[in-house]
């Protein structure tokens, strides 16, 4: 398979020769110049080639496959397109974006996923759509029951590695049996594990491999750091860093539902606008939580890995890993939710002393992750005093405040005494609390890492495979699908063994 990497980037979308109606949609969507992955993928896709594209979420990949596909549908109005996505949220986002890009060409799209009426979805399809965006479980239900019959000319597997990690491999293979051999097959993935390579060999014809700059690794725009903390210090560490960093919008990835609820309660108790996202949350509350997070009413989303899959929010400033992820692919996916669209981002990982071997392997797999020390309580209080002093210095006095000061002066207080007491009250209100020190200092971390790495008792090498995460934890894991587990992909709700 031929691999292409970026050379010369296109400077305008007009260079691709899109139909006028597609260019009109591009302009209204606010796109000005193609992103690197768009410059790389669009020419090959316009030629009708099967392609595997390595690109992270947030790089413009929806338009990278959407624009050439929509252009094809404009020129061949009787043809259709299928996009498979791992979760209902991502399916809805893709459908909305393809509609916006193709609306001047009268392109009609629908998102198909579990939790919605079969009848309504099949009714819309029967009236005619050009683009179907679906989660694998619901799509397979419709195909197997005969309620959906179609012959797409273009098939896209978006976030393919995420779909496989969620247990959709068998579903995808069965869906592809319904797809005609002539269809152009496009596969988009941030990483390229072995099962993806198996799909490529089975379903793609002489594909070209397109690798966007930085694909398969962490973005250079993300500042990565780790903090060594004891198991019992994780909540304290998260609270201390959030108080210190004051993130605009952040996601905290937890391992279990119990951790998610407990940390959310801790943050709410300190007046941080936080909300949990895990498998026990029903769909309506889930949708409201994600909507509130996008719109800024919720600043901190505390989520399990499974529950947050497919979540695409452009302006996440910080990502916290409450535990070190089980493999490098999960780490790249998690932290890839920040540092998007030219923005910088921060990725913070908590590592217990017993997880240092796994940290070494993660650093080998993804590059430099810098050690850092959690601010002391004294440091945090000093910053809070400086912040409050600055606010007082910039504030304008109100008439009511003037009247109250005059009353206090009449009562015998000096202006200096009033100012000192007022500022003291401000500083004491919601003042940082907790132990003076949390976790290891950088010097201790560096000294530990400078020692020779101990050999694994099993003799194995490399980073743990998916699902191989070990270490102390509390509560039940939020796995997603599987025998005896609650299926949580946001799909049809079937259990799979």
TrEMBL record:
Which SUPFAM superfamilies does this UniProt record tie to the protein? P-loop containing nucleoside triphosphate hydrolases (SSF52540)
Residue stretches of biased makeup (Low complexity): 450-475
Gene Ontology CC: cytosol
What region holds the DEAD-box RNA helicase Q domain?
11-39
Query: Per the database record, which ranges form the Helicase ATP-binding domain?
Result: 42-210
Q: Where is the Helicase C-terminal domain?
A: 221-381
Record's keyword terms, sorted: ATP-binding, Helicase, Hydrolase, Nucleotide-binding
Entries under CDD domains matching the protein: DEADc, SF2_C_DEAD
Q: Where is the composition biased (Basic and acidic residues)?
A: 476-497
- Entry's Gene Ontology molecular function annotations: ATP binding; hydrolase activity; nucleic acid binding; RNA helicase activity
Q: Where is this region: Disordered?
A: 450-497
Q: Which InterPro entries match?
A: DEAD/DEAH_box_helicase_dom, DEAD/DEAH_RhlB, DEAD_box_RNA_helicase, Helicase_ATP-bd, Helicase_C-like, P-loop_NTPase, RNA-helicase_DEAD-box_CS, RNA_helicase_DEAD_Q_motif
What positions carry the motif Q motif?
11-39
Q: Which family does it belong to?
A: Belongs to the DEAD box helicase family.
Write down what this protein is called. DEAD/DEAH box helicase
Species of origin = Leptonema illini
């Amino acid at each position: 398979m031929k691999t292409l990497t970026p050379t010369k980037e296109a400077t305008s979308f007009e260079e691709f020769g899109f139909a006028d109606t597609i260019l009109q949609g591009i302009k209204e969507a606010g796109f000005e110049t193609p992103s690197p992955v768009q410059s790389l993928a669009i020419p090959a896709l316009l030629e009708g080639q099967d392609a595997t594209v390595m690109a992270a979420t947030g790089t413009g990949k929806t338009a990278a496959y959407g624009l050439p596909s929509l252009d094809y549908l404009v020129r061949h109005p009787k043809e259709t397109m299928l996009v498979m996505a791992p979760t209902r949220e991502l399916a809805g986002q893709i459908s909305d974006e393809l509609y916006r890009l193709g609306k001047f060409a009268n392109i009609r799209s629908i998102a198909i996923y579990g939790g919605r009426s079969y009848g309504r979805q099949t009714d819309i399809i029967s009236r005619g759509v050009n683009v179907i965006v679906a989660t694998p479980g619901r799509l397979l239900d419709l195909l197997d029951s005969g309620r959906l019959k179609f012959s797409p000319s273009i098939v896209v597997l978006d976030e393919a590695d995420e779909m496989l990690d969620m247990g959709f491999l068998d579903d995808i293979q069965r869906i592809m049996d319904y797809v005609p051999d002539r269809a152009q097959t496009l596969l988009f993935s941030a990483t390229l594990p072995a099962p993806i390579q198996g799909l490529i060999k089975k379903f793609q014809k002489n594909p070209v491999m397109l690798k966007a700059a930085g694909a398969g690794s962490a973005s250079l725009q993300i500042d990565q750091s780790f903090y060594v903390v004891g198991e019992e210090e994780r909540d304290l560490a998260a609270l201390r860093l959030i108080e210190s960093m004051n993130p605009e919008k952040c996601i905290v990835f937890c391992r279990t539902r119990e951790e998610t609820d407990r940390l959310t309660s801790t943050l709410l108790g300190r007046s941080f606008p936080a909300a949990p996202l895990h498998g026990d949350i029903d769909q309506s509350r889930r949708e409201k939580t994600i909507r509130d997070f996008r719109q800024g009413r919720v600043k901190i989303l505390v989520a399990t890995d499974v529950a947050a899959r497919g979540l695409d929010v452009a302006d996440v400033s910080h990502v916290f890993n409450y535990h070190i992820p089980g493999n490098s692919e999960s780490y790249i996916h998690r932290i890839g939710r920040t540092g998007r669209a030219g923005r910088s981002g921060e990725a913070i990982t908590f590592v217990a002393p017993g997880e240092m071997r796994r940290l070494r392997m993660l650093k080998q797999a993804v590059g430099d992750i810098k050690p850092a020390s959690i601010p002391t309580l004294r440091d945090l209080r000093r910053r809070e005093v400086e912040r409050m002093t600055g606010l007082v210095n910039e504030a304008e006095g109100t008439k009511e405040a003037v009247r109250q000061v005059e009353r206090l002066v009449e009562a015998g207080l000096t202006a200096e005494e009033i100012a000192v007491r007022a500022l003291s009250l401000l500083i004491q209100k919601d003042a940082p609390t907790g132990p003076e020190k949390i976790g290891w200092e950088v010097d201790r971390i560096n000294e530990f890492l400078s020692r020779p790495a101990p050999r694994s008792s099993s003799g194995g090498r490399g980073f743990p495979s998916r699902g191989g995460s070990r270490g102390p934890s509390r509560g039940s894991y939020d796995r997603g699908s599987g025998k005896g587990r609650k299926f949580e992909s946001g799909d049809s709700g079937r259990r799979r063994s």
